[in-house]
Amino acid sequence: MDKQTQTLLKYTSRSLYLSARILPRTIRDAFGIAYLLCRYADSIADTSLLPPQRRLYWIAKYPQMIALPNEKEQKELVKEICGSSDNPYEKELLENLPCCLRAFQALCAPQRQAVLEVARQVCNGMQMDLQTFPAENSGQIASLHTAQDLEHYCHLMGGAPGVFWSTLITQTVRLPIEKERLLLLGRNIGDALQIVNILRDLPKDLRIGRCYFPLEELSPLGLTPQDLLEPKNSPRFEPIKQKWIYWGLSKLQSAFEYMQALPKTQLRHRAAVAWPVLWTADTLYKVYQEQNLLDVAHRVKIPRRVIYKTMLLSPFVLPSNRLFAKWLENKMALFSSFKNTL
Predict the structure, then answer these.
(1) pLDDT tens for each residue of 279-288
(2) CA 209, CA 215: separation in Å to the nearest integer?
(3) Rounded to 5 degrees, what angle do the CA atoms 243, 246, 249 make?
(4) How far apart are CA 29 and CA 106, in angstroms?
(5) Ramachandran region of residue 140, left (φ > 0), alpha (ψ -120 to 50) or beta?
(6) Cα(328)–Cα(337) distance, integer angstroms
(7) What predicted TM-score, i.e. pTM, was given to this entire model?
């Protein structure tokens, strides 16, 4: 990546940039470019400048625009969505789609294929958003219908990036595990990262008309998506919250086998996998502790000191599978109600 794309990655990816920085150079560029391209798609899907149907049009076309760049289409898209963000760095990203696409074309063929596939899957998830939920300013709320719908959404938005990450590793590192097994473990970890985002962002998502938690789980509890706008209903929502925390934790269990598959000499790979896993466990615990998850004023977020502590301890812990397993086990042991089921 050139200096411009590196700057865009740094200021638009927050904590994920830390994982990108630690990656070996052989896959760092592919990882960063994939993030920027998916972040661009996210900006298309979320922009208030365009009606949902127009956003859907561009999201459906976007993977083809990556694979076969068309200057006329690029200019048309940039013109339509520029001005949709107050963040100066995201604004710069929106204005520099051609730069990101040139960086994509500079990747080797296997990495281009992996980046294109994850972009396709994420765009499928964004199409699901745009086809399921009403416009943000409609005053209405829609919900997914079944638990399978939510799991499928997590596979697209979290699992697919986990597969992508794992594919990049298999392209550059000899591993004592079948490729398909590592990809499955990576998908599980990605699912866990996605469900924690959905849980912590619940109040914010509700206010733009999106309830990812399915009607088939809300209805038996006498709840509607509209009821979740009221913080007083947090205790009634608790069983659903607990169920999906457990689902996330069960997916996160794959990290034990995943880390065992990564050679101990590959400390950069190990850190880039371990950090999101450990931070996801920390965030799930914050959600677990939060008794008023529906209150938009209660922002669930791990302190920055926790992030830095994880990074500081890594050189001493990550060379050992046993020590990493103990570290993650200690975090999971905090979920007292799940001790007998994990």
Answers:
(1) 999 999 999 9
(2) 14
(3) 155
(4) 10
(5) beta
(6) 17
(7) 0.92
